[in-house]
Amino acid sequence: MSFSPITHIRHFDLAVPDFDRQVEFYKNHWGLTVQHDDGDVVYFAAEGSPEQYVTRVRRSQDKRLDLVAFGAADRSSVDQLAQELGSKGIQLVSEPDQLQTLGGGYGFRFFDLEGRTIEVSAEVETRQHRKIEERESIPVRLSHVVLNSAQPEKMLAWYERHLGFRLSDTLNHPHVGDLFYFLRCNSQHHSMAIARGPHASLQHASFELRGLDEYMRGSGRMIRAGYRKIWGPGRHAAGDNTFTYFVDPNGNTMEMTTELEMIDEDTWHPTIYDAQEPETSDQWGTGGDMDEFITKEMFNDSDNAHLFVAPPV
């Protein structure tokens, strides 16, 4: 595209049937802070992040990924993106306007290639945040979101063309093809990724912790609390980040991570990693190989019934 409007990821929003347990999971175990609670929607902030919230949980009979939100540099970037998307026939959910969600701001929503709701905004009020201290094993910020897709190649091309994302690395299996596309919108190795799956769904969401010790302490806390760990602790090759994956009360996969690679835009060259090599999934060899069980867990429940349907909030 002619310009790259996206500066960073803001938040991802979930609708869940087991609302109370999801809220309890984030609040009392995962280490997020309730920023606002209206009874049916709870906004959660990360203590180290200036974002008003990094995830939002909505009470619903149906489970779904409500939306993924990204930041833009300013109001003019929001307007320009909306104009470009509209001119290319992409369906807008709303025109650029003042947002009515926590923190306000100026933005709009639209459907991506497969019908997920995406929000882009600027001028959102920042929250008072703080430095996360040594041994404080709570998320600093939202790191990235991974989306499952049955047509990942088309999704990659769509996000590159329309939102200006850049491909950092690819995870490939010689007999299956490309499994993962890691996409960046800033110097962080990836703020989102697209994974090959049987349907559209949230593959996982990842939260950055302060450092290795905090990451291990956080992982241990979740294990002791009895939440199901499906993979980790380990360290990926692409992105060079650590990983421990847990299943939340509604069957979504949540990751604790740290030390995600920062890249130099002028010198970076994408690598194709072989998924059959053990070091690709886990450099340390501590988390175990990526197997069919883990893959199926991360397929999650299909969002197909909710595609091209905007959330009510």
Automatic annotation (TrEMBL):
Pfam family, one: Glyoxalase
Xref: Gene3D superfamilies: 2,3-Dihydroxybiphenyl 1,2-Dioxygenase, domain 1
Domain of life: Bacteria
Residue intervals of the VOC domain: 8-123, 141-259
InterPro entries cross-referenced by the UniProt entry: Glyas_Bleomycin-R_OHBP_Dase, Glyas_Fos-R_dOase_dom, GlyoxalaseI/FosfomycinResist, VOC_core
SUPFAM superfamilies to which the protein is assigned, alphabetical: Glyoxalase/Bleomycin resistance protein/Dihydroxybiphenyl dioxygenase
Protein name, as recorded: Oxidoreductase
